[in-house]
Amino acid sequence: MYGLRWGSITRDVFERAFRLKEHGTTIRREVVAGLTTFAAMAYILAVNPGILKAAGMPGDALVTATALGAALATVLMAAMTNFPLALAPGMGINAFFAYTICVGMGIPWQSALGLVFINGCLFLLLSVTGIRQRILASIPLDLKVAIAAGIGLFIAFIGLENGGLVVANPETLVALGDLSSPPVLLFGAGILLTCVLVARGIPGAIILSMLVLTVAGLFVPAAGGGTVTQWPGKIFSWPASIEPLFLKLNFDFLLAEHLKAIPVVLTLLLVDLFDNLGTLIGVTRRAGIMDEKGNVPKLGNALVADSIAAILSSLLGTSTVVSYIESAAGVQAGGRTGLTAITVAVCFLAALFVTPVILMIPGVAVAPALVAVGLVMFQSVTELKLDHFEIAAPAMLTILFMPLSFSINTGIGIGLITLVVLGLFAKPRRFDIVTAILAALFVLHFLEPGLRKLSAH
Q1: Do 423 and 429 contact (CB within 8 A), yes or no?
Q2: Tell me, what DSSP letter sits at residue 227?
Q3: Half-sphere exposure of residue 306, counting CA atoms within 13 Å on the CB side?
């Protein structure tokens, strides 16, 4: 009797906090969705420290900073928006931090964290003043649809690359992977399994396929010896201290070399801004949060949350924490509220103690999930009126450039520039002045490396 009463109280608490019935979901579905999202992005616990160590940062502390940054920022997003959106240190941004800012420019990582802090403060200023909302509102609906479809194609491409089914080729850029390789064959079978489970509407299809492939990987030989799935030497581990990174940022480089620091901050701001906007558009549209006019309720809160997350990441000692497109995996699994995000946050905290088990999941088990999620997101392309060239050109270039340039940011920029040029010189089309300003900024952003080389000569 007490168990029934306790269960009823628990359901009431979750209902009041997350409005589950209003969003057509259940506690079980949200938890499964959260586990799915976490499984799709758990790789960041190993990958982020691996990248940032190149900047001279301590690896063990980075694992703790990565998990804490992801958990705290994700809880913040859930509390402020009730969105099924998870956050973690951003891929691409961490490479820019380590290899361009620290290694390339010789900036100490402590000073680089200071630049991340300034970037986060500017982010927050743009959010609370409504400028970021204005930017998102200025993007036409058809371009938002293209962004969602492009992100889908990008995610699928990442999955195919991670699984080894698509590989680099010096003559053709890309080529089919080695189908005689057992891990690649396992990955190919995983794609088919995941697609079948998703098509049949099996609850928790994506995480189920990950579990099946992880177990199967124990019996499949890996290319370098051993098996695809490596049984961990231990199950539990204590979190490493975050002390070597916590509050170690400084502003020495900004004060001493402000003319060099300002372009770095602006680049961080531009990349963060449009990667985050692209993720918000893609995930909220797939989750049914975005309305038919392309508006996102509580958008201001979402933008403030990821702005605070950027500041938080610099204090914890990691590169910028951003909204993760892998959240789409949880949305596909049925996640519709912040309970999905809270589940992800709990998993990140728990991962501090069971990191060996989390890292046991091989890449070939995660990659099919990314392909399946990407295929689902790409379906939004059917909403585009591709028989109208003035819509088709910006939309298709946006979609193509995301995977081909390996950058959401670049795809959005190319799409905006094409939209404005066609609107001015081909078939007249009304567009917001903010859209024109954004296109101009992207032109400068794309030309900046060339201009820098000219100034050096």
Answers
A1: yes
A2: B
A3: 28
